[in-house]
């Protein structure tokens, strides 16, 4: 669920010409909550929050009834329950959501092999090669929504545009449970009516900096000379946002054929300057990566730390282990060492991520080191069993169970 601001009047007809709009962005509506409602139909129409219990952790998903009370994804659970005390809180069950996600992605795969899965609940498709067989992009979009609803039972929103960036904006404005086409010739008109916060990379501080110069919407941003934007935001961010304000996004839809890495990253709406908070984020990411490795029967040899500053400069650091691992303790030991050697960028971190590469099958007969104790992974594997039965909120490292400090701000995550 995107927390970026939207324009209510942007959800309207922008025309019917989809001849130059081969990119579809399919985004499931409140996915975790929608899946839970399949098993709990008695909760339909009631506010439902999926996330950590007892005020711990963050909101993973919220039904639209809960959102009406201001509950958003990545919000601390204690804040969500304060805003909507009557909400039904359900634990996160990643295994169930992954199974439903595979069903959805299988339907999308029937349309085209040019499919880029972005996360468990969203994907891009380039339907250029599917037009002769299935019809226009709009026809295909309606088919996808109907098939997902009939065969899986959950709602999906679809955005159709000439680029990935605009297609994603279109799907956000199609929610809930809708389809929005942005014809190529209407791209600039559509963008012009959006607030600057709708653009990728504009957080609260960037929006405030632009507002001080009288730039509040994309129309004003697009009309601003890039050299002035450089003085406001810095060179990298200025060129990035100037391109987006004109609908420029040359990235193709890139299918992932074989999983070559496992990772997760968090983008912060308020840039993160507290290194201890950053360390806790990285520890949580290390545990997420390790759990996914074990669930997939994989181990990894290369650990990668990714960090992006407020100036949009991205730094990656990696280290190769002596032997492949699927344990968070090994992954975080490397991540912590790499992070300690990395200075906090001016303005703080806007993104942190952990990735494990060099994957091998766990049963591939990798020789253990002479001093390696096969029992050392027992605690993490036991924790897997507990979470599988009782949900992800049932067990976590002690350092991650403390309540967020008042200065901590929520982050959004992407697989």
Topology:
Elements: E1 23-28, H1 31-39, E2 48-51, E3 59-62, H2 64-67, H3 77-83, E4 88-90, H4 94-109, E5 115-119, E6 122-126, H5 131-134, H6 137-151, E7 156-161, H7 164-174, E8 179-181, H8 187-192, H9 204-211, H10 218-222, H11 226-233, H12 235-245, E9 261-272, H13 275-295, E10 298-309, E11 314-325, H14 328-340, E12 349-361, H15 378-390, E13 411-414
Parallel strand pairs: 2-4, 7-8
Antiparallel strand pairs: 1-6, 1-7, 2-3, 5-6, 9-12, 9-13, 10-11, 10-12
Helix pairs in contact: 4-6, 11-12, 13-14
Question: Would you give an account of this structure?
Answer:
The chain is an alpha+beta fold and 415 residues long. Helices cover 36% and strands 21% of the residues. The protein has 15 helices and 13 strands. It is globular, with a radius of gyration of 22 Å.
Q: What would you say about this model in short?
A:
36% of the residues lie in helices and 21% in strands. With 415 residues, the chain is of the alpha+beta class. It has a five-stranded mixed sheet with strand order 5-6-1-7-8. A five-stranded antiparallel sheet has the order 11-10-12-9-13, covered by helices on one side.
Strand order of the largest sheet: 5-6-1-7-8
What overall form do the CA principal axes indicate?
globular
How many H/I helical runs?
15
| Rg estimate, integer Å | 22 Å
Q: Give the end-to-end Cα distance, rounded to a whole number of Å.
A: 13 Å
- Regions with little confidence, pLDDT below 50 for 5+ residues: 365-373, 401-415
Number of strands: 13
Helix content: 25-40%
How much strand?
A: 15-25%
Give the biggest beta sheet.
5 strands, mixed
Mean pLDDT: 86
The secondary-structure class comes to: alpha+beta
Question: H/E order of the elements?
Answer: EHEEHHEHEEHHEHEHHHHHEHEEHEHE
